[in-house]
Amino acid sequence: SIVLKNRANGSMAEVPLSAVFVAIGLVPDNKIYEGVLKLDERGYIDSGEDCLTDCKGVFVAGDTRNKTLRQLVTAASDGATAATAAANYIRKNF
């Protein structure tokens, strides 16, 4: 089991469990793009599911962009989507 502390009211609760998944790194390291790409209020690069940014010719993939699910499989999918979008951009513009 694990003892959890409620940060809002300080109460403690013991929760029985047999495994724990620890997620670390929930703060994106995107400061370098500030002023270049649009970031959301949490610091993630603003993009849709198409992985397009507000900067023409710049595409984003993985946990650096704003999305609801952060897992390896979704990051890989983003990579394929961004690569396809980049290839299409190059074909159309060069």
How are the SSEs ordered, and which strands pair?
Layout: E1 2-5, E2 12-15, H1 72-93
Antiparallel strand pairs: 1-2
Describe the structure.
- By secondary structure, the chain is an alpha+beta fold.
- It is built from 1 helix and 2 strands.
- Strands 1-2 form a two-stranded antiparallel ribbon.
- Strand 1 (2-5) and strand 2 form a beta hairpin.
- The model has no long low-confidence stretch (mean pLDDT 91).
| Percent helix | 10-25%
Along the chain, the helix and strand elements come as EEH
Alpha-beta classification: alpha+beta
Shape: elongated
Give the structure's gist in a few sentences:
With 94 residues, the protein is α+β, with helices and mostly antiparallel strands. The chain has one helix at 72-93; strands at 2-5, 12-15.
List keywords for this structure.
two-stranded antiparallel sheet, 1 helix
